[in-house]
Design goal:
Blueprint lengths: L6 H11 L4 H11 L5 H12 L10 H15 L1
Helix pairs in contact: 1-4
Amino acid sequence: KTVTIGLNDKIAFVKHLFGGSDADFIRVISQLNTFDKYSEANDFVQNIVKPDYNNWAGKEEIEERFMHIIENKFA
């Protein structure tokens, strides 16, 4: 099962979470698709991805939506 993100969500995530970089977003989603457990994916986002983007400060609502979609991959 892979991470499935609709167009509107993708646009919001790229703009708000990935500093406008489509390439960064695509790279992160590709990496997330390689994990077998949500805990691994969550660790990756919290420790590797977020620090590159000011820890998504002030973006909690969009981060929550992003993580919910990631979590659904493992449900």
